[in-house]
Amino acid sequence: MIHRLIGEVxxxxxxxxxxxxxxxxxxxxxILVLAVLAYVIGIARGEPASxxxxxxxxxxxxxxPEGLPAALTITLAIGVPRIAPACRQASASPSxxxxxxxxxxxxxxxxxxxxxxTGIYRAMFSRLLVxxxxxxxxxxxxxxxxxxxxxxxxxVTVVHVLEPEHRALRPRRRRSPAPATEEEAAAWLGEAxxxxxLRGRAESVILEASRPAHEIIDLAGQVEADLxxxxxxxTHARPGFLLGGVAERLIAYSPCSVALFSAGHEAxxxxxxxxxxxxxxxxxRALKAATRLALAFSARLLILSVVDYxxxxxxxxxxxxxxxxxxxxERTLHEAVAGLAAPLESVSEELREGDPRAGLLAAAExxxxxxxxxxHTGAGGFAELTLGxxxxxxxxxxxxxxxVVKPTSG
Length: 410
What we know:
Elements: H1 2-8, H2 15-44, H3 49-63, H4 68-86, H5 94-103, H6 107-112, H7 118-122, E1 127-131, H8 136-152, E2 155-162, H9 182-195, E3 202-208, H10 212-222, E4 227-231, H11 246-253, E5 257-261, E6 272-276, H12 281-296, E7 300-307, H13 319-338, E8 347-353, H14 356-367, E9 371-375, H15 382-386, H16 390-397, E10 402-405
């Protein structure tokens, strides 16, 4: 049964071989048409049939490019080893990688020159939405969006929400006074886009609402954003965490992943992306997003797991239980690293003990990463806004950029 099923599978070939086969058929047809035409013309001129036939056959044979297979073989033999390794770099263009993938489509060649589809990992970032209010945090978010868009060919939308005059509070850390009209806001956003070197590559949107978070969330769905970038605190001097500030509401209810930024963060010279990982489905999504970020910025990927040995209502576990939990966490980390297929510069894993929130914040302080990526369950509500899950607590407490990956992402 098995050998019969295998025998029924035809050799599909790679795109180049199929194109060559199609070209060969077209060339053969053209040669036959020319040979027949030469035979007909010779007969019409009164030439002997035998001589005309021999001439037509000689024309057909002479027109066949006998050196074409050898030329293609030599070209592929020289080109594939050069193109395939180059596509392992995050800077390689997706079109060039697609060409290399076609060339190495045959299993025997692909095994020798594996070419990961870098473009697939970049595809997550096709539309970035930046919520901008003129604060230093928002400037950091806009700068990060510009850098990411330049590396992933993503579109950028910059939105500013004008609040009614009776709700406007005293600003702080603004580069310039808050715009009062839509015309002023448009010019103000244009200057910010220009400072981020996004002029001509980003579109601006001006909204007016008393509840900025709701308008931004609606806009994220309308533009089908993959990532929403904003500052943690913004320009308004009002408490946000316990009362449910804009950042917390965006994390809880945004249809896409959310990245929060602080002012003054300086990443380490060697760029690093940290992925918080615990083996859950949320962590898998976060790892996927972290991989794409690491590829886009040619950064090192650190997969971090923080083990909490505390058992609710069970007290401190025994030594054997602690060892079993640690072995399970180590095995989960190893499987995560082994499952990565992306051509990353460097991948490392780290296992810490203690409270996950404290462990993630400590790792972020030590490594000064380009971004810390965490998964999110997608659950919202008052409990999350007041108490906050691990992702929300870390996102609002870390100094480095934190990307909270939502269930609908990636």
